[in-house]
Every structure is written in structure tokens, then in C-alpha cells.
Amino acid sequence: MERLKVMRNLCEVLGIDFWEKMEELDIDPKVEEMDDETSPRVNLAVELLENTKRSRFLKIKELGLRLIELRSVMIDQEIDFANVVCFIDAASEDLITQEKALSSRFLNKIKCEDSQLEQLSANRLKEKNLRIKTKIRELLKCTHLTGNEVEIDLEKEVLEELKMQKEMLKVEVERRSDIVIRAEIWRKSVDQLEALQKGSKNTNKMELMRCELLAKRIEGIKNILVEMVQTWEEKYDSPFSYDGDHLLTILNADAKPSSSKAEGMQKQKAEGQVPAQDLKSLLTPHPKLRRTPRVPVPLEEHVPLQLHVVAPLLLVPPAGAPPPMAQAAQAVQELPAPLPLPDVPVQAGSPPTMISQFNRSRQSLLTSTMLKALQVMKRPTLSTFQVTMMIAMTVTTYLE
User: Fold this and answer.
1) Coil, strand, or helix at residue 302?
2) Which GO molecular function entries does the Swiss-Prot or TrEMBL record give (predicted)?
3) pTM above 0.70, yes or no
């Protein structure tokens, strides 16, 4: 009967129905004592159950350790495996007596959780690898390096190796930063000078000076770069590469940029294509004209000028005047005489003062008189100055 009790306990721990097991062994459930026929079958069943218990215990213990490891990676994943942790601390399977503690259902649940966590951990590991590889590519691009030059293999999938490569690349970036920054400035300046020389069609002094300044800047950056690269190569005993090429070779092979368009014009002058005075006018600075300061005139003061005094002088053509001027003066004199107006002094800064004193009839008469004068002035032989004088004579004739 003791062996039957052991078999009952094993069935409870393993989650197996004891009565089904008895029927499987063809043993009467009401038996009180075992005979020589049933005893070997019970002993064999107990031995098999003990082996199953031992194997399940070891499997759950192994899965428990894996769950703890994956749990540390997947912090945001909530999984209940407190029973599994308790099994890990157990020294042997004999200490596990809880009902269904080692059942096949519980074991399958742990296996399912283990596979899910393993898949999530693999996905997260791939994301970390992808982020590190992207960072390595960005560092290679900003330092103008290739993977072969710094012995970086982006095909690796081991996270620790990728982290080591990233740290090595950071050190290389720190060593090369000063030279790389100046090399990028030099490249952009050369491209800017080429675009300026190709894009501008007309040669003027402003473009000439701009090209000269940019060429001097490029030459200065180039000289500094050569010295820095030579010092760097002596210090680290290795060539300084830039986009897969030796930077010193690039600097030495690069022709000195054209200083300005003046060089091209000088070549054209030697070939007889550009006149000498044109080149001289571009290279000779123009003097700056000083502006005369303006003196404000108070509005209260009247200008001592009466229009009726100036009118006769304007109407009389001077001696030796050209024929158009004389003809215009004659045409103005032939205009119909307007109504007389009183003399009005002109105030500085306020010309509308005189016009505001006219009534409507006199304004219309003035307008018609000026239109007739303008019809006389529509001649191709008259200059701007002559037209201006005629308008002044028309107004003064009316105001006389």
C-alpha cells in the first residue's frame, strides 16, 4: 500500500489522474493489498513517474533561468512566473510536492512564454543593431571615411562587436574633426568659385573683386590644410584619407583656382579681343562723390521773386537763340490774352498756396492756355530744357 501512496502523490504533482493510471495498470481501485502480480506493475509505474518528475523539474528549472535572463531584457513585459522561480531554488525534485506543480499544462505554458520572450528579445536586438549600424554610417559619412579604411564590418550581427566598432570610430572622428571641417570649407569654396565664374556672363568690377577675394580665401585654406595634414600624418604615421583618396594628393593635384575674371580679360587682351581701356576701367577704382549738405529754408520766409518781373525776360528770346526757341516764344505770344491776376508771392516749400487762390473760371482758363502751349511744343526738334522753358513762359504769360 505504501507504493500506491507514492504513486498517488506522484500523479498529483505531475497532474495525472490517479484512477486512470490504476485502470491503465489493470489494478482494481478497491484493492487493499498487492499481490505478487500487481506489485511489479506498481513499482514500474512509480519508477516511470519519478523519471518524468525529474525530467520535468530539470526542464522547468532550465526554462526558469532563461525567463529570468529574458525578463531582464524585456523590462516592459509583465509575465507571471513566480512558481518557476521557486523551482529554481529547489535542490531536487523530491522537495516539490505541490499539486500540479509539474503538470504538462504548466510546462507547456512556460515553453510558450519562453518562445514569446525569445522572439521579442530577438526583435529588440535587431533594432539595436540597426540603430548602431545607422550611427556608424553617419559617422563614416561625416568624417569622409570608408569601412575598409577603419576595418569596420557592418555585416556583423553581434551587438558587442558593433558597439566596439562604434567606439573605435568615435575616437577616429575626434582625431580627424579639425582637418575634415576645413576640407569641407575648402571644397565648398572651390565649388562656389566655379559656379561664380560659369554663371556670370557680364564682367564688372563687383564680380571681379568677389572672385579675387574668394580665390585668396581658397588659397589660404589650402595652405593651412596642407600643413595640418602633414602634421597629422607625422603624428599618427598613416595617410589621411578623404572619401577614399589621399587628401594631400587631392590638394597638390588641384590646380590653383583662377584668381578673378581679370586674368581671363588679360588673356583676351593679349589676343586682341578686349580693348585696353575696358580692362583699365574695370581695374581703376571710381572716386566717391561727396554730397552737398542740404540747408533747410524756413517756411515763414518769402522768396523775393515776383512772377510778373520774370515773365517779360522769359518771353523775349535771347540773341542768337536757335530757331525752335524763337518759334516757341512767338507761338506763346500769339496765344489769347488771359484774364489779369494779382501778383502772388511764391512761398518756399508750399507751391499749392498760389493755386488755392484761383477760382474755377480762372483755373479752367489757365488749363486751356497750357494745353495750347503744349500743342505748340510737340515738335521733335525741341529739347527737354526748351520744353521746360516754354511751360514756364506759358504760366508767366498768364500770370503777367
Assistant:
1) strand
2) microtubule binding
3) no
Backbone angles phi, psi at 302, to 5 degrees: -95, 140
Q: Which residues contact 255 (CB under 8 A, 6 or more apart)?
A: none
- What is the chain's pLDDT, residue by residue, as a tens digit (400 residues)? 677 778 878 888 888 887 887 777 777 766 666 677 778 888 888 888 888 888 888 887 787 777 777 666 554 444 455 556 566 666 666 666 677 777 778 778 878 877 877 888 788 888 888 888 888 888 888 888 876 766 677 777 677 888 888 888 888 888 888 898 888 888 888 888 888 777 655 556 777 788 888 888 888 888 889 999 999 988 888 888 888 888 888 888 765 444 444 455 455 545 554 444 444 444 444 455 555 555 554 444 444 434 444 444 444 455 555 554 455 555 555 544 544 444 444 444 444 444 444 444 454 555 555 555 555 555 545 555 555 565 566 555 544 4
* Cβ-contact 382, 337 below 8 angstroms: no
